């Protein structure tokens, strides 16, 4: 079987210090994105368990699978969850959701918890689009912009390049810095044409690390243009899977002129985390 270089690691996690049975409110957020799905479970607003996995062709099943994997080995069942909020592209297809909320609102709310209430600008680099979001100290959205419907500058675009170059996607970011000097970015903004351009560069004798550096540079510049349109106000953070790619994050920081905030949370769960926080508030409102 041929190695799938684009395939990123799927995982789940649960807290060893929280006993969910002692909690008053158990809430869950399900983020069904175009490429990945996450489920986050909170106990009284504290992160208790989560999962992150590939979105399949069936959105309802992807939501169910993410939920079941987050619940694995917790002793908790879906019946123990007081409120579920669905978000992401597939939010209307979460069969057990009590409510759906847009991923823009959920990423802002999740980032507010993950990075602190000083966050004012969020870049959500998702599977098939990018969103620049402005928010206030409570994580409430004040403005946002989306890129066009093109995979360039997204997780899917990076997957295409990882496969083209036969480089594991987790290694792409670090490898992009193993160059003597930064190459000019690929000129094409469309992933299809950028792939063709990259193939041409390989034929000209460019090493893989130089090609991937040129693509990371192009992705970063494309996203900076989006951010400049909305106006970047610090503190600035990146959510979504691309937030783990240092090749993009460092170049973005260099072009913007300031660093992104760091967090101990997984940047990929921001949307589901925000959905779970909304779920907690809604559950407690209904109870009161």
Descriptive report:
- This protein has helices at residues 59-71, 103-115, 155-165, 172-175, 191-203, 208-230, 246-256, 270-287; strands spanning 11-14, 26-32, 36-43, 46-54, 83-87, 99-100, 121-125, 130-135, 141-146, 236-239.
- It is α/β, with parallel strands linked by helices and 288 residues long.
- A six-stranded mixed β-sheet has the order 1-4-3-2-5-6. Strands 9-8-7-10 form a four-stranded mixed β-sheet, with helices on both faces.
- Helix 2 (103-115) crosses helix 8 (270-287), helix 5 packs antiparallel against helix 6 and helix 6 (208-230) packs across helix 7.
- The protein is globular.
- The protein starts with 10 loop residues before the first strand and ends with a helix.
- The model has no long low-confidence stretch (mean pLDDT 91).
Topology:
Blueprint: E1 11-14, E2 26-32, E3 36-43, E4 46-54, H1 59-71, E5 83-87, E6 99-100, H2 103-115, E7 121-125, E8 130-135, E9 141-146, H3 155-165, H4 172-175, H5 191-203, H6 208-230, E10 236-239, H7 246-256, H8 270-287
Parallel strand pairs: 2-5, 5-6, 7-10
Antiparallel strand pairs: 1-4, 2-3, 3-4, 7-8, 8-9
Helix pairs in contact: 2-8, 5-6, 6-7
What brief labels describe this structure?
single chain, 288 residues, alpha/beta, 6-stranded mixed beta sheet, 4-stranded mixed beta sheet, 8 helices, 10 strands, globular
Number of strands: 10
List the secondary-structure elements in sequence, H or E. Answer: EEEEHEEHEEEHHHHEHH
Q: State Rg.
A: 19 Å
Alpha-beta classification: alpha/beta
Strand order of the largest sheet: 1-4-3-2-5-6
**What portion of the residues fall into strands of 2 or more residues?**
15-25%
Describe the largest sheet: 6 strands, mixed
Count the DSSP helices: 8
Q: Provide the helix percentage.
A: 25-40%
For the residues shown, what is the average pLDDT? 91
Cα shape: globular
Distance between the termini: 56 Å
> Which runs of at least 5 residues are low in confidence (pLDDT < 50)?
none
């Amino acid at each position: 079987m041929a190695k799938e270089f684009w395939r990123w690691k799927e995982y789940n996690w649960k807290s060893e210090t929280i006993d969910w049975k002692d909690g008053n409110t158990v809430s869950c957020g399900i983020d069904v994105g175009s490429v990945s799905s996450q489920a986050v479970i909170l106990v009284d607003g504290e992160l208790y368990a989560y999962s992150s996995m590939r979105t399949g062709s069936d959105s309802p099943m992807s939501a169910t699978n993410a939920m079941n994997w987050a619940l694995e080995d917790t002793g908790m069942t879906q019946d123990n969850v007081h409120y579920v909020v669905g978000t992401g592209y597939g939010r209307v297809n979460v069969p057990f959701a009590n409510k759906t909320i847009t991923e823009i609102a959920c990423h802002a709310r999740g980032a507010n918890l993950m990075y602190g209430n000083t966050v004012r600008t969020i870049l959500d680099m998702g599977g098939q689009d990018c969103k620049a979001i402005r928010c206030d100290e409570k994580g409430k959205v004040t403005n946002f912009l989306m890129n066009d419907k093109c995979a360039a500058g997204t997780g899917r675009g990076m997957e295409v390049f990882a496969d083209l170059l036969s480089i594991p996607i987790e290694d792409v970011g670090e490898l992009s810095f193993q160059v003597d000097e930064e190459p000019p970015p690929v000129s094409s903004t469309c992933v299809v044409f950028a792939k063709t351009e990259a193939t041409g560069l390989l034929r000209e004798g460019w090493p893989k690390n130089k090609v991937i550096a040129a693509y990371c540079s192009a992705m970063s510049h494309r996203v900076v243009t989006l951010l400049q349109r909305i106006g970047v106000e610090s503190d600035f953070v990146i959510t979504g899977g691309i937030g783990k790619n240092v090749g993009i994050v460092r170049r973005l920081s260099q072009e913007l002129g300031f660093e992104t905030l760091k967090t101990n949370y997984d940047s990929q769960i921001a949307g589901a985390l925000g959905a779970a926080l909304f779920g907690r508030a809604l559950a407690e409102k209904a109870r009161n």
